[in-house]
Inverse folding.
């Protein structure tokens, strides 16, 4: 999980509840949920929305994840090279190109 983002919206006095509900439904579809509601002195409504940021949403937020290349450990690399060499010797001996034992 990541951190929380907040967004503020101020609806003018006299805004119909259907309009506010439609705006909130649209925001909810984008992952924003109402955190607090506050009626102001001028009759407007101040709503704070929050959104929990998730690393899997980097694509939607306009960010791109970059894979970090880790160096291959030398012992793993040597073991892999040894396995490849043994397989090559077995294939060469099986095909008859290199005799393992001379009579």
């Amino acid at each position: 999980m990541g951190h929380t983002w907040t967004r503020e919206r101020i609806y003018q006095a006299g805004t119909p509840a259907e309009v506010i509900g439609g705006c909130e439904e649209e925001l909810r579809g984008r992952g924003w949920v109402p955190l607090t509601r506050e009626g102001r002195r001028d009759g407007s409504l101040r709503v704070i929305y929050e959104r929990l940021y998730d690393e899997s949403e980097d694509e939607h937020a306009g960010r791109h994840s970059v894979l970090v290349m880790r160096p291959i450990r030398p012992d793993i690399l040597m073991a892999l090279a040894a396995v490849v060499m043994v397989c090559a010797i077995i294939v060469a001996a099986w095909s008859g190109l290199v005799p393992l034992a001379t009579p």
About this structure: The chain has a mean pLDDT of 78. Helices lie at 17-29, 74-95. Strands lie at 4-11, 33-39, 45-52.
